[in-house]
Design goal:
With 332 residues, chain A is mostly helical. Helix content of chain A is 67%, strand content 0%. The chains are: A mainly alpha (332), B mainly alpha (210).
């Protein structure tokens, strides 16, 4: 009986986190399309509901009632598993995101490593989908994205090391609290820029959406998918984008801390500040999508390995030397 | 304790079954996927005994990077055609004596290891190691790695570096006759170099220089 109570308690907490995440994923798809449209002087989706707010719900309904086509020559188990893996990985990462000092589902010691591990597993959904489709375009898209995501993970890892040097802990709440005096975006600004660009590449967003470059690969790894399975890929992709924004907000923008520690600002709960910061980063993601043309593949690889990786490694040495010389290294 | 045991046996059964399936499955890509499942369940076991850092590093390094490259290679090789040949072909009887010798050796090694095995009495007490020092698993690991074993640690780093440089040297080749794309050149091109405005006469056309 006691176990059942614990389980129900946890399930309630998980639902309380995941349902808002799923709803906000649907909303940011609408937001993304609206921002994209406004930059190009179009209207975007504005018909369903006020300002077109319910466009994503209408799309989701359409996907649910469409037929799921499984190609006869595909590897059926892995074909069905791929969107499930993408979706699951995008969801489970939210377990460690702290919305305030106490509001966190699982306050583990190695939170940032967990986030990094889950985001690096995200590549499997794409590879599985691309391989199991047993068709040329999905396979090419999967191979491209595997190489791309593995490359940019390396630079994200090195950037995380930069932040961890200043914090001295792998716990996400500790990382947020360490930014009470100054957000890391100020002393580590170049790292923030590189993190932002690597996050674009890691989530396959334009200008790095080579895995699904429609001009060359039809739709990349999603070509053979239809109906709800396609929608799950799509939801997982946007949930991953939100997650990357949350990671950027926690690592560089002070997480749930309010920007000014003064009376009217401290009344607002930390969760609101975190959501505002996530939305700010997402707004930048959407702007980049609207204004930047797609990269050539060899330049993408060059940028990852020859520019970002050496630069962030040099910055690790600089940060470590600075902290060591001025005796600022965090000691527990 | 019961919940702990349930999780432990679930993960260890998954680990053992998927390890068997790595060798037993006919499709090579499936083997790699079972290998990934094996890595994941082993990292879950690491986390259960309180070695959270090791578990996460296992996920990041093995599942996030090594297994992706495995998959990459296996998918590119189109090994689906050669499946099952090893067991079904007539030559397979040649491999049996060698396989028997190696498997007997490994079996003997396992017997020796298990024979000297003793269970730690407080194996499941996760918080014990933390409460003794007041430090988390990661801190303790770092304090040992960077003080007592600093030389071993550095030497292993050097060995990895040498292996990496060696791999690059072995595979690197400068191909001649290939048009290389120079980033700087492409950007710094002026209009005058690329565009020439010609007066085209009727019925004569223009000879394009190529």
């Amino acid at each position: 009986m006691e176990y059942l109570n614990i389980i129900f308690d946890e399930v309630y907490k998980i639902l309380f986190l995941l349902v808002p995440v799923l709803v906000s994923v649907a909303m940011i798809v609408w937001l993304d399309r609206r921002i994209w449209a406004f930059v190009q002087k179009r209207q975007g989706p504005n018909v369903v509901g006020p300002f077109g707010l319910f466009q994503s719900l209408a799309d989701a309904l359409k996907y649910i009632f469409k037929e799921m086509i499984i190609p006869s020559s595909s590897n059926k188990v892995i074909f069905i598993l791929a969107p499930i893996v993408t979706m699951t990985l995008a969801m489970i990462a939210w377990a460690v995101i702290p919305f305030s000092a106490t509001q966190v589902l699982s306050d583990i010691n190695v939170g940032i490593l967990y986030l990094f591990a889950v985001s690096s597993l995200g590549v499997y959904g794409i590879i599985m989908g691309g391989w199991a489709s047993n068709s040329k375009y999905p396979f090419l898209g999967a191979i491209r994205s595997a190489a791309q995501m593995v490359s940019y993970e390396v630079s994200i890892g090195v950037i995380i090391i930069n932040v961890l040097l200043c914090v001295g802990s792998l716990n996400l709440n500790d990382i947020v609290i360490a930014q009470q005096n100054v957000w890391f975006v100020i002393p580590l600004f170049p790292m923030f820029v590189i993190f932002f660009i690597s996050a674009l590449a890691e989530t396959n967003r334009p200008p790095f959406d080579l895995p699904e470059a429609e001009a060359e690969l039809v739709a990349g790894y999603q070509t053979e998918y239809s109906g709800m399975m396609y929608a799950m890929f799509w939801l997982g992709e946007y949930a991953n984008i939100l997650l990357m924004c949350a990671m950027g907000a926690i690592l560089f923008l002070g997480g749930w801390l309010s920007p000014i520690e003064l009376y009217p600002f401290t009344l607002i709960p930390g969760a609101i500040w975190l959501i505002l910061k996530i939305l700010l980063l997402f707004f930048l993601f959407a702007l980049v999508k609207a204004i930047v043309p797609r990269y050539r593949y060899d330049q993408l690889m060059r940028l990852g390995w020859k520019v970002f990786l050496p630069f962030s490694l040099i910055w690790v040495v600089l940060t470590a030397s600075y902290l060591f010389y001025f005796n600022l290294l965090p000691v527990n | 304790m019961i919940a702990h045991a349930i999780f432990f046996y679930t993960f260890s059964i998954i680990a053992v079954v998927s390890a068997i399936m790595v060798t037993a499955s006919k499709n090579t890509v499936h083997s790699v996927f079972f290998l990934i499942l094996d890595f994941i369940s082993i990292s879950c076991l690491f986390i259960m005994i309180g070695a959270e850092f090791l578990g996460m590093i296992m996920l990041i390094v093995y599942v996030g990077a090594v297994a992706v490259l495995f998959l990459f290679v296996v998918m590119m090789l189109n090994v689906a055609q050669q499946k099952n040949q090893w067991f079904a072909s007539k030559d397979s009887s040649k491999h049996i004596p060698i396989g028997l010798v190696i498997s007997t050796l490994i079996f003997a090694e396992i017997i020796i290891v298990i024979g000297g095995w003793k269970y730690k009495p407080d194996l499941f007490d996760v918080n014990n190691s933390i409460s003794q020092t007041g430090l988390s698993n990661t801190h303790t690991l770092g304090q040992i790695l960077y003080t007592d074993y600093i030389h071993v640690f550095q030497i292993s780093g050097m060995i990895l570096l040498v292996a990496m440089v060696g791999a690059i040297v072995l595979t690197f080749r400068q191909r001649s006759g290939v048009k290389r794309q120079s980033y700087i050149k492409q950007i710094s091109r002026e209009r005058a170099e690329g565009v020439e405005v010609l007066e085209v006469q009727s019925n004569k056309g223009v000879k394009i220089d190529d």
